[in-house]
Design a protein that fits this description.
The protein contains one helix and nine strands; from the N terminus they run αβββββββββ. The protein is α+β, with helices and mostly antiparallel strands. The strands form two sheets. Strands 2, 3, 5, 6 and 8 form a five-stranded antiparallel sheet that branches. Strands 1-9-4-7 form a four-stranded antiparallel sheet, with no helix packed on it. It is rod-shaped and about 145 Å long.
Length: 185
């Protein structure tokens, strides 16, 4: 009888353990699956948030770079304005004439030149052309106007300051003209 009792207890124990495990599996497995799905959903949301954050950080960095570039350009412009405020215009060359001329060379020290000319013509088809050359004969720029009376000015950025230049002036039916070159330094 003892053996039967031991076998019966052993069978009851094995059945209890197996039944308990099976019952626990049946009861807790759906909850575990739900928790795993919730964890996967949270991981997906975290990945989306991290991606958005990286894009936002990239956009913020790009904006900061653009602002930094803009700030340096404004600083440079302020520096240029301050530099220009401390400079004045100086007459570099002047000529009054009535016909075509090739001038002597003259020195341009500054980086900016303003050319002002007046022309008095006989007819509306009268014209003047002003050719600006480096002293070696290379053309730098040209300007001109036409009419019975004209008054014009132009500004030029000088690529090579402290350089010698000369003018060639051609006219057609012009009675007189006056040209002044001002430089800024």
């Amino acid at each position: 009888m003892e053996k039967k009792l031991i076998v019966l207890v052993l069978i009851a124990l094995i059945a209890g353990l197996g039944g308990g495990y099976g019952l626990g599996y049946v009861i807790y497995q759906p909850q575990i699956q739900n928790l795993q799905e919730d964890l996967n959903n949270l991981n997906d949301k975290l990945d989306t948030i991290n991606s958005t954050l990286r894009n936002t950080q990239s956009s913020v960095m790009s904006l900061q770079n653009e602002l930094s570039t803009l700030n340096s350009e404004v600083t440079s412009l302020n520096s240029t304005v301050e530099t220009m405020e401390n400079r004045t215009w100086h007459e570099a060359y002047h000529i009054d004439a009535t016909s075509d001329v090739r001038t002597d060379t003259f020195l341009i020290k500054g980086k900016w030149v303003r050319i002002r000319w007046y022309m008095l013509g006989e007819y509306s088809s009268s014209w003047i052309d002003i050719w600006i050359y480096y002293s070696n004969g290379t053309l730098y720029a040209d300007r001109g106007s036409s009419g019975i009376f004209s008054s014009y000015a132009c500004d030029l950025a000088i690529v090579e300051p402290n350089t010698e230049y000369y003018l060639e002036i051609e006219t057609y039916e012009v009675t007189e003209y006056s040209i002044t070159i001002w430089e800024y330094y």
